[in-house]
Design brief:
376 residues, alpha/beta, TIM Barrel, 3 domains, 9-stranded parallel sheet, 14 helices, 14 strands, 18% strand, binds flavin mononucleotide
Length: 376
């Protein structure tokens, strides 16, 4: 009796043709949204073009970074984490972080806080500034944040966290998502229970960084716990933690049953990995690392975006960080570093990029920065 299974965009419409004695008497259909099965990842009304998304990073995922991530194929991008209290108090530095350039993919605004009222109001501010999704940080391990009862601390108290999400869900029309850790420490790996409670109050998807708060960035992410979250809820679950290259992606994605993967550190200083990850997960194809010159040109494009966006003064500070990481992967790194210290203008940075290209790749290969801390 089951006659057809149609795929429409991301939604799989399972259509049953009902026949009696061989004659068609009607059809019944059911849309299965946001499921994996070859279909796209769906968050609320947003059908993501890729199951690979870029995880939020303070000091990194600003507007210029997000535009490049979009160009390299990401399904969704997220702002840096911003304090709800700062948004509500109209603090310019906080509002500046929710500067959302319209992109062909959804941009989530990530907020952090503990008060349901402030979080609801901050969500409305983000939506008014163009956010397509509100993401709430329930994983930040930083003491200053935890001491305010926010980030990973809010996640410890499931009913308090649910109340915060309830307030946000009723304040905005866009989907609300959560970014969580596995739990507070190894004795309280409550991510599955937390995700189930959040699903009940209307959360549209959850991203799980597979480390506890106590772990910080040490050890390996527990993908077994991430999978437990997936088993517990029907909403899309995105796995996060230690996806740094093709093999680590394959190991964590294959047979995971997850709906998507959020990558953070793996794309910093290496935008090309984003393209590789998208091809690998969405199309099952492996593409090689781009040649050195192309990767350098990507870093250069990024620095040019920073210059356009921030102006020379601020961009030369922000851009130096990326240029320094690029230099670490080059031959003659010591000499290039000295020129970088002296560079204060866009044209000086451009000259260093020329020099980087002339110098060529270090024998040790492309360098990626290492982070020992972050906000989620
Ligand atoms: C520099 C840095 C800043 C971060 N900032 C945020 C943030 O603002 N919000 C958040 O939820 N997580 C933040 N994180 C955590 C990442 O989103 C991610 O969960 C973590 O790095 C593990 O993923 P990865 O192994 O792909 O890097 C940050 C991480 C780093 C390294």
């Amino acid at each position: 009796m089951v006659e057809q299974r149609k795929k429409i965009d991301c939604a799989t419409i399972i259509e049953y043709t009902v026949r009696m004695k061989g004659t068609e008497v009607g059809k019944v259909g059911k849309a299965v949204l946001g499921q994996r099965e070859g279909s796209a990842l769906t968050i609320g009304q947003h059908v993501l073009r890729s199951k690979i998304v870029v995880a939020p990073m303070v000091g990194i995922t600003d507007a210029p970074f997000r535009t490049l991530a979009e160009e390299l194929g990401a399904g969704m991008v997220t702002t840096e984490m911003v304090s709800s209290e700062a948004l509500v108090r109209n603090i310019p530095a906080a509002l500046d972080k929710i500067d959302i350039t319209p992109l062909p993919i959804p941009t989530a605004a990530q907020i952090m806080g503990a008060s349901p009222e402030a979080m609801a109001e901050a969500s409305q501010i983000c939506v008014a500034r163009g956010a397509d999704i509100i993401d709430v940080n329930l994983g930040c391990p930083v003491r200053k944040i935890v001491n305010q009862g926010a980030g990973a601390c809010l996640a410890r108290d499931i009913s308090r966290a649910a109340a915060v999400f309830e307030a946000i869900v009723s304040a905005v029309d866009v989907p609300v998502t959560a970014k969580i850790r596995t739990g507070w420490d190894e004795d309280s790996l409550i991510a599955p229970e937390l995700a189930a409670a959040l699903e009940k109050v209307g959360v549209a998807a959850v991203t799980v960084h597979g480390r506890s708060r106590a772990q910080g960035y040490r050890g390996l992410a527990r993908w077994d716990i991430i999978r437990k979250v997936k088993e517990r809820v029907a909403i899309p679950v995105l796995g996060n933690g230690d996806v740094m290259d093709g093999p680590s992606l394959a190991e964590r994605w294959t047979d995971s049953g997850l709906d998507g993967i959020a990558i953070a550190r793996g794309v910093v200083g290496n935008f090309w990995f984003l393209r590789q990850a998208v091809e690998q997960v969405d199309h099952g194809t492996e593409i090689p690392m781009a040649p050195f010159a192309e990767r350098v040109q990507l870093a250069r494009r990024h620095v040019r975006r920073l210059l356009d966006y921030y102006g020379e003064h601020k961009a030369s500070k922000v851009g130096k960080k990326y240029l320094a990481w690029t230099i670490k992967g080059c031959a003659h790194a010591a000499r290039l570093r000295t020129s970088l210290q002296e560079a204060t203008t866009g044209s000086e940075m451009e000259r260093i990029f020329d020099d980087v290209l002339e110098s060529g790749e270090a024998t040790s290969g492309w360098f990626q920065p290492t982070f020992i801390s972050g906000e989620g």
